[in-house]
Amino acid sequence: MEKTDGMNYAPKGKVNRVVSEGEFNFATVALDHGHINGMTNGLIEAGATLKWVYDPDEKKVKEYIEQFPQAQIADSLEQVLDDPEIHLVAAAAIPNKRSALGNRVMRAGKDYFSDKTAFTTKRQLEETKKVVKETGQRFWIYFSERLHVEGAVYAGELIKKVLLEKLFK
Prior knowledge:
Elements: E1 25-31, H1 35-45, E2 49-54, H2 58-67, E3 72-73, H3 77-81, E4 86-92, H4 98-107, E5 111-115, H5 122-135, E6 139-142, H6 144-147, H7 150-167
Parallel strand pairs: 1-2, 1-4, 2-3, 4-5, 5-6
Helix pairs in contact: 4-5
């Protein structure tokens, strides 16, 4: 994979664990876009534990497992959603399916982490707002180009440095 391949580019950042091993378990499903790899890297860097992977396409699962061999292959989405140890489900579904999948995940008592764009209609957004309110679960969106790209991170560091220098002169 080349870094110029934006769909499959999976940045690796600095490990900054905010949870201990096994404290926050997650699964990945709907491997329709390569950003799932960057999403997975970010979760693991934060200390989350990858437990399951599921997609009906065995080829996608095989490629994913090559990068993340610690994941167990689930037989179905239901197996993932029924697992009481799973706190969050990350997905990079086809864009018009992301909202419905997230609603299903949240109704199963798990938080949801979606590749962007998470909604393709206003109706989807309004329905998901209702599900968030009903369930108390979180619906997170992965803004990879803003938050998980070396250039953006470096730009943020430069801005912080300049601001700090101005403040303390």
